[in-house]
Each structure stands twice: as structure tokens, then as C-alpha cells.
Amino acid sequence: MQRRVSALRRAVVAEVEDINRLIYHILRGGVVVSVAVLVFGFVLVAMTGRPIPERSIPPRSLGDQLYHFTPEGYLSLGVLILIFTPVVRVLLSLLSFVKEGDRMYVLMTLIVFVNLITSLFLLA
Q1: 35 touches 78 (CB < 8 A)
Q2: Less Cβ crowding at N or C end of the chain, within 10 Å?
Q3: Domain boundaries, the chain
Q4: 50: alpha, beta or left, given left = phi > 0 and alpha = psi -120 to 50?
Q5: Burial zone of 77 (CB within 10 Å; 0-12 exposed, 13-18 middle, 19+ buried)
Q6: Phi, psi of 48 (to 5 degrees)
Q7: Does residue 66 have a pLDDT over 60?
Q8: If we measure between CA atoms, which residue out of 87, 56, 60 comes closest to residue 74?
Q9: pTM value?
């Protein structure tokens, strides 16, 4: 009986570590990609001689700005990636808790996720 409990405990710990490792890579990757896009935007600022933009580009017109390689577009995209990285982390946590069947954590994480998404769309 103790072997089974011990094996189950190891399996649960391994699964939690896998999820935590995935979340770590998502957060780290989001920051790295965001910084790379921001650096590219600053390189474009230096190459074009334009001043650093004071305002961000609305997401609706971001595609056109990126297509024309404007510094404003890439700086805005870098900031958006940085903002959405924690949102993806909360979404992964929510999916993890759903998979585990932990209703209390699903509810709490869902509340946090809805608050994040709502604030992003209301403030945009």
C-alpha cells in the first residue's frame, strides 16, 4: 500500500513540476520575445531618425504599422506581448486546475482571468 501511495505522490509531483516548467518557459519566452521586438523597434527609431513615440498604436491598426516597419508599430507590439504574457500564464493555470478538477482554484483563477481580460479591453 505504501508503494502505491509513494508512486502516486511521485506522479503528482512530476505532473506539477511539468506544469510549472511550462509556465516558466511561457513567462521567460514572453519576456525574451517582447524585449527582442522592443529592441528592434528602438533600432528602427535610430535608423529612421524619428523621435521615440509618445503614444502606442491601437491594436486595430497595428498590422499596417508592422507591415510598413514603423518604429511605433514594433514598440507597441513589444509592449502588447509583455502585457499578454501574464494573461497566458493565468490561462494555463486555469486549464491546469480544470484538468485536476480543483473547483475552488478554477473559480479563483477564472475570476482573475476575467478581471485581466476585462481590464485589458476596457483600458484599450
Answers
A1: yes
A2: N
A3: 2-123
A4: beta
A5: buried
A6: -85, -20
A7: yes
A8: 56
A9: 0.75
